[in-house]
Design brief:
Blueprint lengths: L1 E4 L14 H9 L3 E5 L10 H5 L3 E4 L2 H7 L2 E3 L6 H4 L7 E4 L7 H10 L2 E4 L14 H18 L21 E5 L3 H12 L3 E6 L2 H11 L4 E4 L2 H7 L5 E4 L25 E4 L20 E4 L2 E4 L9 H30 L7 E4 L2 E2 L2 H7 L6 H7 L6
Parallel strand pairs: 1-2, 1-4, 2-3, 4-5, 5-6, 7-8, 7-10, 8-9, 10-11, 11-13
Antiparallel strand pairs: 6-14, 12-13, 14-15
Helix pairs in contact: 6-7
Bound molecules: nicotinamide-adenine-dinucleotide.
């Protein structure tokens, strides 16, 4: 199969969807790899390292999309990238379609098959292709929150860990999954007072054991959050309902319960945001103030540390890339049922139930959509 990798063009995005190790594996499996010149530069990978492993470089994205049957990316396609997609082509990348009805419509119009990293599941129902970036984003969330609490950056002027004789800052982490665990771990390491809220009792049990008394776990309810907001210096939002738009865990009117210039970090912003007052921001301009509260809502947090993130992401995606390239979508689905939940769009149909509900389009089961698509890749 011809596998293509364009340069990421989302603002402040420096990751790339394949490393030289991935090119080597694909080449050994007999595939042809076409990569846009300079695609790895943001992650400190020169073209020569790709070509040494068997890739061919081309000058522009149009050539990559024009040649490739399987396109590998990191972030959701930007409008100029969607224009290149076509029927019979497979796109494998983060999509986050639930809060993006326009992008969903455009992907449907393209006729392509679009497989989203963030909804692929493993045998235990976990999200193996979201997890590595959630680990990175969770750690960045606390770092960024600590930084934004500094007075010159508009924060309250509180040091997360305090000092002898002065209390540590109060950190609430709402959502104790992969992001939440990593955010809390860094906050514990920085010696803050840490509280982790989740709706899953089983997850709270696991966290309680993992933190061994160094953070408190709290069942997440509207009342619990309202009771904790007045003491909070930093709130990290990290909730997820697989495939769906993020639920609001803090409403606008609840911000009045908080201290002025406290900081909200909404990691769930890629799924639409879990604070009512959140709106997407970029690494170049990461924060804004709403109701006296600093909001940090960067949609591609791991993009800031591409050398870590590119390798962490591609370690996880490569086995799936090889399956898709070796067997096509149908063959790969037959071998790994967890990949089925990754398939979001097939030949004009939305094939993930939570995405379909969120964007207000009918849901079509994957196999039905594949059967209806005569031009489909294998
Ligand atoms: N902004 C970024 O750059 C970036 C990077 C990586 C991940 N993310 C996003 O971070 C979010 C979290 O990802 P994750 O991998 O930690 O997911 P996860 O599935 O591991 O964890 C989510 C947790 O939220 C809990 N939850 C669901 N609804 C809740 C509610 N109402 N109150 C409290 N807890 C609730 C779940 O029980 C689960 O434990 C996702 O939206 C993901 O896309 C964003």
């Amino acid at each position: 199969m011809k596998v293509g990798i364009p340069t990421e063009i989302k603002r402040d995005e420096y990751r790339v969807a394949v490393t030289p190790a991935g090119v080597r594996e694909l080449a050994v499996h007999g595939h042809e790899i076409v990569i846009q010149a300079g695609a790895g530069e943001g992650s400190a990978i020169p073209d020569s390292e790709y070509t040494a492993q068997g890739a061919r470089t081309v000058r522009d994205a149009a050539s990559v999309f024009g040649e490739a049957e399987l396109v590998l990316k990191v972030k959701e396609p930007q409008p100029e990238e969607v224009e290149h997609l076509r029927s019979g082509q497979t796109l494998f990348t983060y999509l986050h379609l639930a809060p993006a009805p326009e992008l969903t419509a455009a992907l449907c119009d393209s006729g392509a098959t679009c497989v989203a990293y963030e909804t692929v599941e493993d045998a235990r129902g976990r999200l193996p292709l979201l997890a590595p970036m959630s680990e990175v984003a969770g750690k960045i969330a606390t770092q960024a929150g600590a930084f934004m609490l500094e007075r010159p950056l508009g924060g309250r002027g509180v040091l997360l860990g305090g000092v002898p004789g002065v209390a540590a800052a109060n950190v609430l982490v709402i959502g104790g999954g992969v992001v939440g665990f990593n955010a809390a771990s860094i906050a514990i390491g920085m010696e803050a007072d840490v509280f982790v809220l989740d709706r899953s009792i089983d997850r709270l049990r696991e966290l309680d054991v993992a933190f061994a008394g160094r953070a408190s776990t709290v069942y997440s309810s509207t009342l619990a959050i309202e009771q904790m907001l007045p003491a909070a210096d930093l709130v990290i939002g990290a909730v997820l309902v697989h495939g769906a738009r993020a639920p609001y865990v803090i409403r606008r009117e609840q911000l009045t319960l908080m201290k002025e210039r406290a900081v909200l970090v909404d990691v769930s912003i890629d799924q639409g945001g879990c604070f009512e007052t959140s709106r997407p921001t970029t690494h170049s301009d990461p924060t804004y103030v709403e109701e006296g509260i600093t909001h940090y809502c960067v949609t591609n947090m791991p993009g800031a540390v591409p050398i870590t993130s590119t390798f962490a992401l591609t370690n996880a995606t490569l086995p799936y890339v090889l399956e898709l390239a070796d067997r096509g979508v149908r063959g790969a689905l037959a071998r790994d049922p967890g990949l089925r939940s990754g398939v979001n769009v097939v030949a004009g149909a939305v094939t993930h139930p939570a995405v379909a509900e969120a964007v207000g389009r009918p849901f079509t089961p994957v196999e039905e959509a594949l059967d209806a698509s005569s031009e489909h890749v294998r």
